[in-house]
Structure formats: structure tokens, C-alpha cells
Write a structure and sequence with these properties.
This protein is α/β, with parallel strands linked by helices and about 260 residues long. It contains ten helices and ten strands. Bound molecules: adenosine-5'-diphosphate (ADP) and magnesium ion (MG). This is ABC transporter ATP-binding protein.
Length: about 260
């Protein structure tokens, strides 16, 4: 990546659903090792913005660049290959599958693509699968789920599901990580651990875009935040500065 090129650059993206304008003219840049918070009341368009960046939703307008490459016409899978990974606001692990296997299956190689490879080079595929299991287990340990590695994902608490979701996203070794409300439904004891782990991931140089309602998490992780309201960018700055901005206060009060 040439110096000075942001990890992620979003310019003037917009998306409507029927008559509802969900995202309307949002832009920002995120450099390697930076972390940007995205806040705003429910319905502000935060999750839609994530969908546009991750590629699960097509934008009506605007540009999205990952390390300088325009990706707004590419699908989600292609963007994962370019170094982008996301977590979902509501994690949906395979409930009967083990915690470890949930992480292993998040590896970018799709089973469909592997059918031919396993026929032509079974040894290589087996070695790759072993390497994937080792990596998955290291991530499960990093996120303190190792004692649950062999249990079905359905036994996990809300907070543990968020950790599993994070492990699945990290399996792709992203350079840009999108986190949609990692603190939602997490008990306070686990919250500190999640904050610590996100800080550690970010300190390794991974750019992080963090949607979160929990202002404690935002204050502790984000030097800068973007506030969205009704699909539009409303304010940006430090968490304390934006939260004392009367327009932001009004947006949260439903004004
Ligand atoms: P946030 O994550 O900030 O709560 P969302 O991005 O989920 O906001 O939603 C923004 C707006 O877009 C809301 O009015 C929501 O109802 C609407 N919206 C989001 N996704 C869809 C969809 N798939 N179909 C129709 N409307 C949607
Ligand atoms: Mg949302």
C-alpha cells in the first residue's frame, strides 16, 4: 500500500430502501491503526453504512476504497479478500456446531471452491485445514473461549457470542475491521475484556470502525467519532466534544 493511502476511504455514500433514505451522503477516512467510532440514535443508518462498506448492500451512490482500490461494485466475499472483515450486530453462529468449528468455517475458502482442490491435492487441503484449526484455536484462546472450544455455540452467553463473532472476523486476518455494537447485551465483567481485546487488535495496526451505543466503550477506544442522525453525518470530533454538541443531544432526544 503506497504511503498516505487510507486503509478505508468512504465518500458520499447513499442508500434508500423504497422511500426510506437510510444513508445519505456519508464519508470518512480511516488509516491503518486508527479507530473511528460511529454513533447515533436507533435508525440513524449505522448498520446500513456497515452493509454498504462490507458489501452486503449495494450503494445507490458514492465510492468506497479499501487501500486505494474502489470496491463499491464488488461483493462482500471479494472485499474480505481485500482485507475487510465485519461482525454483525446480532451474531448468528451455527448453534449446534462447536465454538472452534464456528471459527474454522469462517476461513475465507468456501467449501464449494474446495471440492476440486481436495480431489486434486488432498494432502495440501488437509495441511491447510490443520493450519486453519490451529489458527482458529489460537483466536479462541486470545478471546478466552478455549474452555468452551468443543461445546456447541448455543451454550454461549450474549457476551461470549460477541467474542465468537470477533474470532470469526479475525480468521480472515483483516486489515480493516468493522464492529457492529460489540458491547450490546454484554455483561459489565466481560465488557472490560472486550474493550481490552479490541484495543490490542487495533494496536497491531488493524484499522477499526466501531458502531456502539455504549459511550464508556466509545470513550475508552475512540479518539474520534462520527455522529449519524437520519442517515446523515451530523457531527464529528472527540466523544466528549460531540456529546456536548446541542445538535447531537437533540438528535438523541428525538428532536
Ligand atoms: P441503525 O443501525 O443506526 O439503528 P439502520 O441502518 O438499521 O440504523 O436503519 C436505518 C433506516 O433504514 C431505518 O429507518 C431502517 O428502518 C431502514 N432500513 C434499514 N434496513 C432496511 C431494509 N433492509 N429495508 C427497509 N428499510 C431498512
Ligand atoms: Mg444498527
Amino acid at each position: 500500500v503506497p504511503p498516505g493511502v487510507p486503509a478505508l476511504a468512504v465518500e458520499d455514500v447513499g442508500r434508500s430502501f423504497g422511500g426510506v433514505v437510510a444513508v445519505d451522503g456519508v464519508g470518512f477516512t480511516l488509516r491503518a491503526g486508527e479507530i473511528l467510532g460511529v454513533i447515533g440514535p436507533n435508525g440513524a443508518g449505522k448498520s446500513t453504512l456497515f452493509g454498504l462498506v462490507a458489501g452486503s448492500l449495494a450503494p445507490d451512490r458514492g465510492t468506497i476504497r479499501i487501500e486505494g482500490v474502489a470496491v463499491e461494485r464488488e461483493g462482500a466475499h471479494k472485499r474480505v479478500g481485500r482485507g475487510l472483515a465485519r461482525t454483525f450486530q446480532i451474531p448468528k453462529p451455527f448453534p449446534e456446531m462447536s465454538v472452534l468449528d464456528n471459527v474454522v468455517t469462517a476461513a475465507t475458502g468456501q467449501s464449494g471452491e474446495r471440492v476440486l482442490a481436495s480431489l486434486l491435492a488432498p494432502g495440501r487441503v488437509r495441511r491447510e485445514e490443520e493450519a486453519a484449526r490451529e489458527k482458529a484455536y489460537a483466536l479462541v484462546r486470545f478471546l478466552a473461549l478455549d474452555h468452551l472450544a468443543d461445546r456447541p455455540a448455543k451454550v454461549l452467553s450474549g457476551g461470549q457470542r460477541k467474542l465468537l463473532e470477533l474470532a470469526r472476523a479475525l480468521m480472515a486476518e483483516p486489515r480493516v475491521l468493522l464492529l457492529d455494537e460489540p458491547a450490546a447485551g454484554v455483561n459489565p465483567a466481560l465488557l472490560d475484556f472486550i474493550i481490552e481485546r479490541i484495543a490490542e487488535i487495533n494496536a497491531r495496526g488493524i484499522a477499526v470502525l466501531l458502531i456502539e451505543h455504549n459511550m464508556d466503550m466509545i470513550r475508552r477506544l475512540c479518539p474520534s467519532v462520527l455522529v449519524m442522525a437520519s442517515g446523515r453525518p451530523l457531527a464529528s470530533g472527540t466523544p466528549d466534544a460531540v456529546m456536548s454538541d446541542p445538535r447531537v443531544v437533540e438528535a438523541y432526544l428525538g428532536g
